[in-house]
Recover the amino acids of this structure.
DNA sequence: TATGAATGAGAATTCATTCAT
DNA sequence: CATGAATGAATTCTCATTCAT
């Protein structure tokens, strides 16, 4: 029972499940499909995972930790909160581009109240959102961001914007804009708004 | 057959399904539960709907049309694009508050690629997003919004922000802020950004 | 309850059921299909028939009586047992040709042990076979037919030959031979056999 | 999958299905009954068969091949076409006596247009009938059988006679005559007819 | 550990039959 | 008599999970 994680098989199954879940969705995916994709017997999966739910949760925790570490390591190099948000957007989109299957699972399956959002306390995801919240609070403390902004709401607004844009971006085959452009657009909306008037922002390259 | 939409039973079943799907998610919901909730026999459901999938799709189409009509009728009364976006935010959140079950289904089930996003062309949802796109383009034409904004990306960013905020807002029992406040926050972020120095923002960067 | 038979609806339903059963088989046929074919409501069928089984049995009894009467009236006009058998063959095939649906039901559904051959004592069918038996016994008494022939076996052999030939004849669209020819062939096999040698039979017609 | 025909379970299920189908008929038989009869779980059946239809078809193909091989191996030892027909009759009845359940299924279920005769091309059965046709043609070539006989019709007449006789023979519990006698009767009718005056038959008619 | 055949609870769906109108 | 919406028992088939090898 204290098995897993280190085992090679564990990782192989996680990878197979990621692919299958992304393709068909959690409820549509069959253990036998995951087993086949992983090149193991159905029963083998139950040596490494409690049950089907456990695969999804493990998969998520596993990947989310990596995502979290990566994001933190990139943000920490910057000081300007505005730059940090831009970096967040870029890193997030980049992650999604490189890891479409995982992205699809996070966006689709783990959002579902159906099973997880309610029973499973999604702490890693909260941590991820809190990176944004911290940047915003930092910006408010330094006087860069408006005091009127509610960090708890703003973090979700920013993440939601990124997420929704990336959703169609992931699902559509023809990519119209590159990551850099899209990330910049979103963080610009969020930082300066879409209103033209506000001072000399028009120049703002 | 002929989907007697006018029938009272049809509406009762739609209502029951809305409640059950919202509570448990589509795949977790059983026909027998919907029947029980509706106070009809299991078989009765199949008089009004082709199958389980058809319930979800019908439910969505049915409600989405109402949502769409309502949103359009509210937007049309305003002329200022900025006010329109604010109105959109408020109306959207209001709808969600009054119709939590339906909101949950739209946010969770119909987003799923797992079954519907791929097979079922979600046109009503596209129309909904296009309301935002049209407002943005209108604002750009009148010189109110920046020309650099890409309406197709911005509409998703705005909707995503709203959606993500409303998600936790729907799911959490304790409501910290009222609709008006939250809607204003989000449309403000989007219109003017979170950066403090509006006016002198030109210096920024 | 002392309803039916005389009623026009009763006959309409019988006719509709004949068509539907012939097309799809008993178990594959739905009450609603019969009702539709008959142009009545589903419930109406239960005014004239006890249940689905009753339709098949009634249909059979009803038709079989007519078949029986017709066959008897034709046989009675002849005196030569050999001619009678030939007439039987011709009349049987003729009936089948004119009444394909009914024929298919008799051949297929009423043969089934699945429900009827075991529970339902098929007396009309026995009577029909007994016409043949009587002809054979008559022929034996007059010295025309061999005494070694067992009427009870021979009747089935003769009917079986007719039935099997008519089966493919009914089912196939392209009719290679006409009734007269086929009826003559079968009764000839039965009367004189297929062996060439037996005396001057080669000349025979 | 891959229909492990060699598997012991596969054969056990075929045997159970044969029994149950023969007893109740295809549509009246329930998967759970077959499973119970076979001593396996319902689900196990679906490891070896696609669905209920597949059981019947497999069962038929499986058995029919054996029947066909057996019949051919017996016929080949004889040279006289008349003897071959007699042998066919005896072998057929013998098979039915030893394998009543299978016989009932072939006679009843596989005859049904209701489902199988239309969708499923019953080739094995055609091959079986063709054995008779070949014997008749052989007899005609050697001058033993009348040239006027149409092999395609005669094969069905002969088979039909055998089949109908065997049907009541299978279904009735009290057996009046033994196989040998019945087989001889039928082949005699077919070879020499039931008419008494063989030799002077030329006068007849 | 690994396997994969076997299990059997569970779910969607069908359809003969009823009965209030 | 006629209707057809409603019923719900019954059935096929699925698939997560187990366990003997």
């Amino acid at each position: 029972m204290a098995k897993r994680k280190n085992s090679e098989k564990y990782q192989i199954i996680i990878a197979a499940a990621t692919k299958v879940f992304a393709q068909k969705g959690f409820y549509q995916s069959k253990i036998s499909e995951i087993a086949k994709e992983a090149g193991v017997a159905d029963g083998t999966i139950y040596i490494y995972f409690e049950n089907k739910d456990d695969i999804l949760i493990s998969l998520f925790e596993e990947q989310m930790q990596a995502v979290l570490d990566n994001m933190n390591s990139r943000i920490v190099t910057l000081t300007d909160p505005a730059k940090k948000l831009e970096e967040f957007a870029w890193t997030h989109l980049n992650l999604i581009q490189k890891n479409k299957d995982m992205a699809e699972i996070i966006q689709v399956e783990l959002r579902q109240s159906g099973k997880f959002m309610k029973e499973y306390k999604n702490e890693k995801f909260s941590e991820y959102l809190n990176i944004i919240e911290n940047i915003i609070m930092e910006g408010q403390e330094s006087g860069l961001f408006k005091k009127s902004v509610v960090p708890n709401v703003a973090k979700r607004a920013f993440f939601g914007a990124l997420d929704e844009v990336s959703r169609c971006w992931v699902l559509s085959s023809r990519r119209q804009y590159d990551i850099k452009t899209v990330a910049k657009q979103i963080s610009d909306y969020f930082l300066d708004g879409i209103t033209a008037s506000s001072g000399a922002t028009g120049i703002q390259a």
Notes: Residues 3, 9, 32, 35, 40-44, 47 of chain C lie near DNA strand F (CB under 10 Å from a C1').
